[in-house]
Design brief:
By secondary structure, this protein is α/β, with parallel strands linked by helices. The chain contains 8 helices and 7 strands. Strands 2-5-1-6-7 form a 5-stranded parallel sheet, with helices on both faces. Helix 1 (22-32) crosses helix 8.
Length: 214
Amino acid sequence: MSMKKEHNPIIVGIMGGSASGKTTFAAALSEQLADYTPITLHQDSYFRDWSEFTPEEREKVVTSNHPDAVRWDVLITDVEKLRSKKPIETPAPGTRAANRGDEKKVIQPSSVVIVEGHLIYWNEQLRDLIDIKLFLDVDAHERVLRRMQRDVGTRSANLEAAINWYRRDVLPNFPIYTEPCKQYADLIIPYLNENHIALHTIAAGIRTQLNIQE
């Protein structure tokens, strides 16, 4: 009886501005490739906990849209492990997820690893580990509306606080650390609405690459 050859993992990156639909697209792509049991790593799960700062200092330095927000060392190590077909354990120490007590899990390697986040191509070391780099392109006005709807409607945030945070953290950082990373993308995907053609085309391309390895 012939044995099925193991695939070399394909690392797929999904980047875009805040509220561009990265998590939604990652979930849809994972569903399209369900028979490969994809893994999705969310950049937000690697946000640092800022525990080295006092509460007063934290108010001034905390960010979610500057590269300083991410524990790059841990995220890169986890992607390297998965690329080498080794399991990882989450949440990682020193992250916001660990600090709030998220359940500990061991994630087994997979043929398809999806990494999504609004800063992931900024880091060259992580960028070099990603085989297929996607960028979701959504009009800025639409992203603002989506974010306000999400933060206030779904997360029960105060509208004034959500607007203040957007002005303080998202607006100044997006044009410096997120938008310029379009230049690193293999494909820029319009995602004002669900783009089924792009989704199916990318899923088919990944399948083709995996089949070539068999």
